[in-house]
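User: Predict the full complex structure for these chains.
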Amino acid sequence: MTSLLSVRDLRTAFNGQTVLDGVDFDLHPGKTLGLVGESGSGKSVTALSVMGLLDRNGKVLPGSSIKLEGQELAGLSERGLREVRGKRMAMIFQEPMSSLNPVYTVGDQVAETVRKHLGLSRRASRERAVELLRMVGISAPERRVTEYPHQLSGGMRQRVMIAIAISADPALLIADEPTTALDVTIQGQILALLKELQERLNMAILMITHDLGVVSQIADDVAVMYAGQIIERTEAQRLVGNPAHPYSRGLLASVPRLGMDRNVPLPSIPGSVPSPADWPAGCRFADRCEFATPQCREKPPLLIERWPGHEVACDHPLVDGVPTPEPAREVVS
Amino acid sequence: MAIEVPVARRTSLLRALWRHRSSKVGLILVGFTLFVALIGPFLVLGNASSDPNYQNLGQSLLGSSGSHWLGTDDLGRDELVRMVNGARYTLIMAVAAVTIAAVSGLIVGAVSGYAGGWVDLVIQRLVDIILSFPGFLLALALVAILGTGMTNLIIAVAVSAFPRFVRVTRSGVLTVMQLPYVEAARSQGLPPLRILRKHVVPNALGALIVQTPLEIGSAVLTGAGLGFLGLGVAEPTPEWGAMLGDGRDLLFTNPTLVTYPGIAIFIAILGFNLLGDGIRDVLDPRHSTSR
Amino acid sequence: MTVTEPGAPTTGVPSSAPLLKARGASVEFTVRGRRGKTVVPAVQDIDLDIAPGETLGLVGESGCGKSTLGRALVRLADLTRGTLEFQGTQIGELKGKPLRDLRRDLQLVFQDPMSSLNPRMKVRELIGEAPLVHGLATKDSLDDLVATALERVGMPRSAADRYPHQFSGGQRQRIGIARALALEPKFIVADEPVSALDVSVQSQVVNLLVELQRDLGLTYLFVAHDLAVVDYVSDRVAVMYLGRIVEIGTDEDIRERPRHPYTKALLAAAPEIGRTEAAAPLAGDVPSVVNPPSGCPFRTRCPIAEPQCAESRPELRVVDGHQVACHLV
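Assistant: Here is the predicted structure of the three-chain assembly.
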């Protein structure tokens, strides 16, 4: 299967400080890839690098490759990117309020995007806007088009953002923490909507999130990021069931579940994510890893496919929660 | 749990300003003006004409020469000596007036914002009334009432700058008071005045610090304007505005007599304005437009 | 279960006298807008007893009034109606110095550990300022007090000489907790104390809070939107919707025997790892508190609502050993 989005050795720096350090992944048409990590892992920078939306201090370094449907986006001019953005790939954000213009009505904002990308007339784009709003589950869209963003709830605003994003029928939707700012009962609605639209439009989704629950609900594949690198990548259900990297395992274990006993402390990962200036020389997780050996601190592990369809960047990957004893550099089984 | 704490990367404000292009120019211009005001009068000492008020009618209206670098005025006074001595009057006036305005504006604005209610209402209406007069006219009217002279000039300029400091401080205080750490201070049972002094005001000073150099620049202008109209410090004090006014009648025959004080006023104001803009950019890099 | 007093919660409250007692507690905000004044009833008619040493969890979605209720209980939001009693003393009307003295006993841990620490103060002053003002320490003993407070939350003494921006989010939250503890409070409201933190750090801070309670005999009101965290730390859990408590019971009651349709929906909506299909999401949006629906506030989103739900608002009553406000259970 040819991939829709193919990212190779993506490196991004802010003011000369590298924050993304060689990210590789593929996203296939109509599939969802979950990009999981904590703050400072580089997951959002990855999304912004792909979209070409880094602020002026950020720069994708030479040698990086971002291919969308075979077209190289890294190094493309702002004008070239504008051709791609919105039409073939679109993005939604955590806080929809800051992406919507408070002085225009919702209808105007959706219609404007439609007119820009599809070249429809004023009237036709207006009709299309109503249709799009209906598609994203906004009731009475004919009435809603005349409302302003502040008159809508958080969930409604996110729906409007989704309507704008899908207006040109993009092949790729990048969703950066789209449910984090929403209440749990609304989160479920938005996730269900994204899934429904994906099937209808055959759209690939790159889902950026810190929430493993969200990932396991919506993603086909998952890439876990830590300190600017992907450290584990496999099918979502496999990652959730058999995490091989100690960090993935720690992350999964630290999510509280209903019915846990208060007399047993919650599993947690000691310490905190190192900032880019303090990235250790060897494995970047070694300082927080209970299984780390002296060798781990010396040589950075490579992201290797150790099981079919399961890559992990750890010299002692876990099998059923137990580290493999020998630093195995070759493929196991 | 091992705790790694990054070392502080705080750079001093001065160094940051030096790195910022426009405020660097501002620093140089303000520094130059200060230098002239402090040291200048000693450098031009040496002969009789180094007294700014030494008249020598036989040497009036001379052009530039080795003994009078910038020439002399209609009373034969050395233009350079008068300019250099004038820097002191202008700066003392502007800095003193703005300091008074800033300190009193800070106190009144902080109380107004923190107290709220009718205290705030009364203070804000008074400020509105003062602000409804154009600043220069207000200063002019005050000088007309109080009479000329350095002290009265300072009072007049301070009063016209005061309401802007009240406004700036009040809005800063109102913003900071919304922040959780002020609620935290309240939840810790700290007395209101202490919260205002230690938690609110220090964090609300940003806008006031930006405003101060801009106000000094505008005070230089107001002072010069009053001097030009003959309402500043008493003759024959070599104040820049007054020098401009003196040279007005000779504008067509001896244009340098207005040009030099004009340039001095321009340099001082430009310097303070660039400095103010630079401070704003340095304190809040998001507002940076050009570097 | 015997009802000792009308309106008193009847479930899970240990027999000892409550540390904190609220009756009919309501908080309203007045918002001045274009169309004149609007009264926002953020919290309405709350009856609550909190026993010494217990943790009461408070869950609900944004805007349900849970943070406002937490603030009202520590007198950071004023009650517009109702009474508040702490250790048998009425505290609802206290002002000035007596109120400031009371604040030693009632502390708050904030959601955002960055904006709740004054950026211009070193940790020593952040933690030590209030103990100095309250006379719990002298200038000479202050260093010891700060060091003890820091060590209690797992931070080194050397942290005292640094500024908040020099710490990570989790460390800042520890400093915030140390600041609250330095006053030796009896009751702490933790307002979403971990929701601004990364997952791997959240559990560190939750563990710390639980451990501190055990060691110091603290009483908590733990406010959060994450039902799993609340379930873990709490003895009892109260569920809020549109300013009112709709269900309250032990953590087990709420987890295993939820009766209110909203509680059930919250439980079902919580994203769970390993579940591939999302639960049927609750339809619609949370209505505005300013314009609540008639009758039961939840009826507009309730999957089992009936005509009678629009007519009268259900009061809390005992069902299945805990309290539920629903006509249909």
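Chain A is about 30% helix and 20% strand.
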